[in-house]
Amino acid sequence: MTDTAHHNTGVEGVEGVEGGIGLTALLVAAARAIETHRHDSLAQDIYAEHFVHAAPASADWPVRIHQVADGDANPLWGRFARYFGLRTRVLDDFLLRSVRAHGARQVVLLGAGLDARAFRLDWPPGCVLFEIDREGVLAFKHQVLGGLSATPKATRVPIPVDLREDWVAALTDSGFDTTAPSVWLAEGLLFYLPNASETNLIRTVDRLSAGGSTLAFEVKLDKDLLACRDSPLYTATKHQIGIDLLSLFNREPRPDSAGHLEGKGWTTTVRTPFDYTRHHGRGPHPEQNDALAGNRWVFADKPLR
Ligand SMILES: C[S@@+](CC[C@H](N)C(=O)[O-])C[C@H]1O[C@@H](n2cnc3c(N)ncnc32)[C@H](O)[C@@H]1O
Q1: Which CATH number is 83's domain given?
Q2: pLDDT for 271-303, tens place per residue?
């Protein structure tokens, strides 16, 4: 066994942010850094560039659009980064709307990665954010935020656990209350999980959610995933920074998670990113052979009983 293999305990071969799925968290952080400093920024994350600079794997990635030779014409740091900026904004709005309008005070970020929402959004008093990701990713996040002396604006509870395993005890042992409404987010996560793990995750969210809870998640439609394999967005990500998203995505047929929730009495709304590009007047537009064509953002509400 090589030294590297010995230390890499994740199924994809690498546990932290230095490779495999963990590296995708740095990709999103770099995109957020670029978005933050656009003149027409959709979302601000002042922590994002610190993560990018702190990891050897991403230290030389751009964190401003002017650092990219072809700027917005670059499929990765132009269009794809703008996509992440739009997604960040839409899901920021979802989370704040949920805690403000529905009164929920517990938020669970599934596959939280380098999401700094606990530090950058104005949470109402009494909010608790549970951040679930794998241990190596959360350890890196802790180290970088600690170095910045960052102060969260809500109680933050990191939970190092693999979502393919049984994560319920880890959450409830950390203080999650199944009798109170909750807000859930699975942003950029489900397409990495085996079908059974996604099915189990959605069932579990339903089981742990009191009436009045909300959930937002992102999915990719199978047919578009296969049809757009050679889209510029995937090839640029692979060639410019060595992340082969298609090899990281789980290739099993995807479950109908929105349909499952509907069957359990939730109401769901399914949107495309382009709906929000129109709404905000900026963001990615559809194009031919588009890796984003199959992305859907699903918003679900569990009724009060
Ligand atoms: C693309 S990143 C998105 C991170 C964050 N939600 C965001 O949008 O910035 C995907 C994240 O999912 C996490 N992840 C993937 N599979 C996971 C698993 N089986 N258990 C826990 N976390 C997982 C990765 O470690 C990574 O941080």
Answers
A1: 3.40.50.150
A2: 999 999 999 999 999 999 999 999 999 999 999
